[in-house]
Write a structure and sequence with these properties.
The complex is a heterodimer of chains A (about 120) and B (about 110).
Chain A: E1 5-7, E2 10-13, E3 19-24, E4 31-37, E5 44-50, E6 53-57, E7 65-68, E8 75-79, E9 88-95, E10 107-108, E11 112-116
Parallel strand pairs in A: 2-11
Antiparallel strand pairs in A: 1-3, 3-8, 4-5, 4-9, 5-6, 7-8, 9-10, 9-11
Chain B: E1 3-6, E2 11-14, E3 19-21, E4 23-26, E5 32-38, E6 44-50, E7 56-59, E8 62-65, E9 75-77, E10 86-93, E11 100-101, E12 105-110
Classes of the chains: A mainly beta (about 120), B mainly beta (about 110).
Chain lengths: ~120, ~110
């Protein structure tokens, strides 16, 4: 396994369109995270899955955003009715945690850069 | 809420200079602390971590010590190389929660 994989790497879309990103975590990792990073800022937490359960969502995750991890493996992040403010790098990370409180290293993908025009 | 503050960049150094990037944090509990690095065109990579007070994390010549009394986790390297040019992020995580990052500090090292 070569690490966390994200697809596509780049996406340009017109305002108002829907977009979907995919993340394939490291195969044995049961935790998966989505972050958003804008220019000059650190990554901001969006949401987190433990297996297929979505355990936490940030206030940043408006109702236009939805994330799924249907079989506890890959995850998708969909943004509906995109706005120019959605332009950012969307990062996925995964980790292995035997319990919800276990504090283990998160491995990041290279991200999907979204540009809304 | 929890937060991380790190020094503004960019930091510009000559090769073999000493590096310090300051990081302070605010947390309600007892977080683990991390430094991540992002090289140009690559994803975030864990550089080092410390899980409790007075722990020292180290990797690739970089070090940081978890100081609970000053709520700090400053990154240091005795002699930087051109290949260390990257963006460095300080982060914290409390048990069961996601990572919270600082804004990042860009380091540029010239030969």
């Amino acid at each position: 396994d070569t690490g966390v994989s994200q697809d596509p790497r780049h996406k340009i879309t017109k305002r108002g369109q829907n977009v979907t990103f995919r993340c394939d975590p490291i195969s044995e990792h049961n935790r998966l995270y989505w972050y958003r990073q804008t220019l000059g800022q650190g990554p901001e937490f969006l949401t987190y899955f433990q297996n297929e359960a979505q355990l936490e969502k940030s206030r940043l995750l408006s109702d236009r955003f939805s994330a799924e991890r249907p079989k506890g493996s890959f995850s998708t992040l969909e943004i509906q009715r995109t706005e120019q403010g959605d332009s950012a790098m969307y990062l996925c990370a995964s980790s292995l945690g035997s319990t919800p409180l276990a504090n283990t290293e998160a491995f990041f993908g290279q991200g999907t850069r979204l540009t809304v025009v | 809420g929890n937060s991380v503050t790190q020094m503004e960049g960019p930091v510009t150094l000559s090769e073999e200079a000493f590096l310090t990037i300051n990081c302070t944090y605010t947390a309600t509990g007892y977080p683990s602390l991390f430094w991540y690095v992002q090289y140009p065109g690559e994803g975030l990579q864990l550089l080092l971590k410390a899980t409790k007070a007075d722990d020292k994390g180290s990797n690739k010549g970089f070090e940081a010590t978890y100081r609970k009394e000053t709520t700090s986790f400053h990154l240091e390297k005795g002699s930087v190389q051109v290949s260390d040019s990257a963006v460095y992020f300080c982060a914290l995580r409390e048990a069961g929660t996601a990572l919270i990052f600082g804004k990042g500090t860009t380091l540029s090292v010239s030969s």
